[in-house]
């Protein structure tokens, strides 16, 4: 699991440490990753809060977007992963 933030790598890493997140954080200040996954708000340029489950074939299995219920991201992603590769 990897988290991506449009902040600098230093800020993303500090966020990971402060919250004791069990996954790596990648800083994406140039927004290359954000643009590649199509999660950039067009007018304001911020990244939308989106969780992707990517399969072993590098294809997106599911994408979940919610600005208001971030706690659901992990639960939904884990449910998809638990169902296995056919999910």
- When the domains are counted, the total is 2
State the secondary-structure class. Answer: alpha+beta
Strand order of the largest sheet: 1-2
Major beta sheet, specifics? 2 strands, parallel
Roughly what fraction of the amino acids lie in strands? 15-25%
Mean pLDDT: 86
In one word, what is the shape? globular
Count the beta strands: 4
Distance between the termini: 17 Å
Counting DSSP H or I runs of 4 or more residues, the number of helices is 3
Strand and helix order:
EHEHEEH
Helical content, roughly?
A: 25-40%
What is the gyration radius calculated from CA atoms? 13 Å
Low-confidence stretches: none
Description:
The protein has 87 residues and is an alpha+beta fold. The chain has 2 domains: 1-46, no CATH class; 49-87. It contains 3 helices and 4 strands, in the order βαβαββα. It has a two-stranded parallel ribbon with strand order 1-2. α1 links the parallel β1 and β2 (24-27). The protein is globular and about 35 Å long. The model has no long low-confidence stretch (mean pLDDT 86).
Write the layout of secondary structure elements.
Blueprint: E1 2-5, H1 9-19, E2 24-27, H2 32-36, E3 50-54, E4 60-65, H3 71-83
Parallel strand pairs: 1-2
Antiparallel strand pairs: 3-4
Using brief descriptors, characterize the structure shown.
single chain, 87 residues, alpha+beta, 2 domains, two-stranded parallel ribbon, two-stranded antiparallel ribbon
């Amino acid at each position: 699991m990897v988290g991506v933030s449009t902040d600098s790598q230093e800020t993303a890493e500090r966020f990971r440490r402060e919250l004791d997140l069990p996954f790596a954080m990648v800083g994406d200040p140039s927004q290359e990753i954000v643009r590649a996954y199509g999660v950039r708000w067009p007018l304001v340029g911020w990244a939308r809060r989106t969780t992707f489950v990517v399969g072993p074939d590098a294809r997106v299995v599911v994408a979940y977007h919610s600005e208001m219920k971030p706690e659901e991201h992990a639960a939904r992603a884990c449910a998809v992963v638990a169902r296995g590769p056919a999910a």
